[in-house]
Design brief:
The strands form 2 sheets. Strands 1, 2, 3, 4, 5, 6 and 7 form a 7-stranded mixed sheet that branches. A 3-stranded antiparallel sheet has the order 8-10-9. By secondary structure, the chain is an alpha+beta fold. The longest helix has 16 residues. The protein folds into 3 domains: 111 residues, Nucleoside Triphosphate Pyrophosphohydrolase (Alpha-Beta Complex), CATH 3.90.79.10; 74 residues, no CATH class; 72 residues, Winged helix-like DNA-binding domain superfamily/Winged helix DNA-binding domain (Arc Repressor Mutant, subunit A, Orthogonal Bundle), CATH 1.10.10. Helix 4 runs antiparallel to helix 5. 29% of the residues lie in helices and 23% in strands. The N and C termini lie far apart (46 Å).
Length: 300
């Protein structure tokens, strides 16, 4: 804690912990009205590193042992936390784990419950843009043109189509337009989160989607052996879009990120599917060993 001209600065950490279960991305939350991401203070005396502190208090408060962890961003806008005289800084971390039982007030909840416009696996339309109509109509001329362009870029209305990585941009646009509860709006469905935690979650989702294409992070969410179908479903769950299966398989073949193990999975009731594993040595062979997002079956 530090003081600057009477303003007290406090630093803490926020954890975005994500799993995938039954083809649905899940996020670890605490509390219910409204839910929030796990967050805790930094103890400079007890915690030698930020990551050690994060792992300790997430385990202590939720019973979840973190595996893959990376620093996401530092959030510190003026007024964050709503306490007069206090500037709150939150160092956010992203963690990927398998879903496991939790303790206390912690719960696993569907990620798209909070960011429903990000899941386009069942629909390729953008009904969320209708909520932005009053915001667009509030200005005219050049200002309206600029706003319409921003909406098209964020929600895939232009020639470029839907960009899975623009999740933070989409949330911030909805916030600016005043259509989400966090900005006193009520024209968008989806569950609000405490503080700015839905913004933090949107930032984390965009980070994961970007890394799918150049880092093998998706394998943190899979068992040691898996079918290619299971791998594709996890990628689709995180990306929020359906992929062309043939293109996805061809990309996997070219990338060399997986290899067969010589056994088959027979529990599906259909044709046995070959089991594969992640080739860890690929990180030494290729500069960007991701699974990619080929042939997305979605449009603006």
């Amino acid at each position: 804690m530090a003081k600057t001209d009477g303003l007290r600065v406090e630093a803490g950490m926020t954890a975005v912990v994500i799993a995938v279960s039954d083809e649905q991305p899940r996020v670890l939350t605490v509390g219910a009205a409204p839910p929030r991401l796990p967050a805790g203070p930094l103890d400079p005396a007890a915690d030698r590193t930020l990551e050690m502190a994060l792992r300790r208090w997430v385990a202590e408060t939720t019973d979840v042992d973190l595996g893959y962890v990376e620093q996401l961003y530092t959030f510190g806008d003026a007024g964050r936390g709503g306490r007069p005289g206090v500037r709150e800084l939150a160092i956010a971390y992203l963690g990927l784990v398998g879903e496991s039982p939790v303790a206390g007030a912690a719960a696993w909840r569907d990620l798209y419950e909070f960011l429903p416009w990000e899941d386009r696996r069942l629909s390729t339309g953008s009904p969320w843009t209708a909520a932005l109509a009053p915001w667009l109509a509030a200005v005219s001329g050049e200002a309206r043109r600029v706003r319409k362009e921003r909406v098209a870029l964020a929600f895939g209305g232009g020639e470029a189509g839907w960009d899975v990585e623009r999740s933070l941009e989409r949330y911030e646009l909805l916030f600016e337009a005043g259509v989400v509860p966090e900005s006193a709006g009520d024209r968008i469905t989806g569950t609000a989160m405490a503080f700015d935690h839905r913004r933090v979650l949107a930032q984390a989702l965009g980070r994961i989607r970007g890394k799918l294409q150049y880092r093998p992070v998706v394998f943190e969410l899979l068992p040691p052996e898996f079918t290619l179908g299971a791998l594709q479903r996890v990628v689709e769950a995180l990306a929020g879009v359906r992929l062309h299966t043939g293109n996805f398989r061809r990309l996997l073949d070219r990338s060399g990120v997986v290899e067969g193990v010589g056994r088959h999975h027979t529990g599906t009731g259909g044709r046995p599917a070959e089991l594969h594993r992640f080739r860890r040595e690929v990180v030494l062979e290729r500069p960007a060993p991701g699974v990619g997002l080929p042939g997305m079956r979605t449009a603006g």
